[in-house]
Amino acid sequence: MCRAASKEAAVRFELGIGPDSWGVWFPADPHQPPFEQFLDEVNRAGYRTIELGPYGYLPTDPVVLRTQLDAYKLRLSGGFLFGDMHGVDAWETLRPELDASCGLLQALGAQFLVLIEGMYTDLFTGKMVANAELTEQEWTRLADVSNRIGAYVADRYGLRAAFHPHAQTPIETEEQIERYLALTDPGLVSMCLDTGHHVYCGGDVVSFMRTHHERIPYLHIKSVNRGVMAEVASKGVPFADAVKMGAFTEPKEGAIDFKAFHQVLNEIDFEGIGIVEQDLYPTEFDRPLPIALSTREYLAAIGLADSV
User: Which part of the chain is the Xylose isomerase-like TIM barrel domain (predicted)?
Assistant: First the structure.
């Protein structure tokens, strides 16, 4: 756990970083750095916890992955499952990847499985590929499948399911998130609050965290560039293009007041996991390490991380 020295910086949580901060969106892609670079640079930047990223990016053999993590003194906090959980055949469709990912997570001692609903736009073209709003029947299925996954991964793998609201999915606005929380069982499904996506979709992370902190044990820490976001909103820029334009930026440079967010974490006595993420796909291979270092230094300066 991260233990800050001063009274004002008494937040107790484990700080880590994800492959997303190295521009990793897919199991394999020539625009992404090799996993060996990711692990080495995470270690050099002073982080000790990572996420799995897309299943298949890191080695899927638990013995091989354990050897790699041990070499860099890293531990795994969790992984994610991305798909249409509101679909008629959602459980059957998602089950193979669910079992593969969770088996690996369990073997490596991870704690969380992050759930992300499928996007309603094509990731690259921005073309609508599904309805942006769920029907009443789809809301019911989404809640039922989420609860089923939560119960399944807890019983079978000892993992905790945490739902991640995501830009350009049917659960992106605060109103939609609050409906999801009301429909799902808090004993089965918690929430991963992604600070960047929350603001990208018009939310207020400080007030939302204060109100809903009992459901939020897991954070993705990132920020957005307000100027780029204004252009994205006015022109309807697709998500992937928005990322290329720099919609997501370092916490010290973005629109989110992380000092105020830190204050809320202190007020609620937050104790959980915070994973640094900055959507960078695609990016030059020499770009992620300086950003990871700079972000950790900033978070340490405001009490959200130990000194580097």
Answer: 39-278
- Contact between 170 and 176 under an 8 Å Cβ cutoff? The reply is yes
Please give the average per-residue pLDDT across 267-287, as a whole number: 96
Q: Which of 246, 232, 231, 252 is nearest to 283 (CA)?
A: 246
Superfamily classification of domain 2-301? Divalent-metal-dependent TIM barrel enzymes (3.20.20.150)
> How many C-beta atoms surround the C-beta of residue 268 within 10 A?
14
66-80 burial by CB neighbour count: b if 16+ within 10 A, else e?
eebbeebebbbbbbb
**Cis bond leading into 282, ω under 30°?**
yes
Task: Tell the burial category of 294 from Cβ atoms under 10 Å away from its Cβ (0-12, 13-18, 19+).
Answer: middle
Question: Which is nearest to 66 in space by CA: 37, 25, 97, 105?
Answer: 105
Kindly calculate the radius of gyration of the chain based on its CA atoms and give it in whole angstroms: 18
